[in-house]
Amino acid sequence: MPDDATTTGPREETAAALQAVHTRFGFETAPQTGTGWHPFAELTDGRVARWAAEMTAEGRAPAEVGASLASGLTGPVVRPLAVGFVLLARIPVVTTPTVAVRRRGRVTDRAALTGALALLPDDPAAGRPGTVVVEDLRGELASRLTALAAPLLDEIHRATRYGLRNLWGGLGDVLSSHSLWAARHRGDDPPALHAVFDTVQDVWDLVTARTGIPVDRPVPFPVAGPARRSLGQVRGTCCLHYRIPGRTAADGSPRYCTSCPLISTDERRTRMRHLVEPTATTSRTAHLGMPSL
């Protein structure tokens, strides 16, 4: 059960604001110790190796297991970081002692982020208890995300032999896709969307400088409609979700993501119509209950 939080501060206000944007972007602000919650500091104590062995025993390929564990365990943390960075210029300070994730079966759906809130000097909440004022939010995001993810991705690599380049590449793709989603949600025009995309690549330059692991970067993908233009992306690293049992189309064919590098440009353009035509229903994430990325 969560600890009883009786006060509302900038962290709680930020979590509520992100939750209002979409439930998948919110996070718990009090420590969680109930069933299914796993502190990030304890994920490398044998749990990841055990989960990987269980998933492999189900007949899943090691590469898909590695990609699935990485995206699942980091996703609930990266989503509020990306959306908070773009929409609020605020990010939770994530460290292994202050992060936990909730895993239900094979799905990790929520994070508890109980550290301080990093924000810029001109933020109205600057100086309030529970905040850390930083001059460079890009550098803060890069350093915190790298330090948090490195032990986990190393452990997943050891357990599955899935390549570190692919693990880090997948993380960068997710950070970029959710940042773009936030900018589209805000109503940014194409030049502003490109600026957000470039800013996130600047963040990833800093991540790469820390890890020393170059990755295949996502590529911006412009989309045009009768009256609107927008921007999506093509992932640099396939997430391999199309290999997960049950993730197939009605005809039994693989269900590729809209941003998957394996699909054709024409198919991607058709499936990204929802970005410029509100009535289109081609979102790759509709079947997952997720916002369109």
TrEMBL record:
Pfam families: FhuF_C. The lineage of its organism: Bacteria, Bacillati, Actinomycetota, Actinomycetes, Pseudonocardiales. It comes from the Bacteria. Residues 235-262 form the Ferric siderophore reductase C-terminal domain. This is Ferric siderophore reductase C-terminal domain-containing protein.
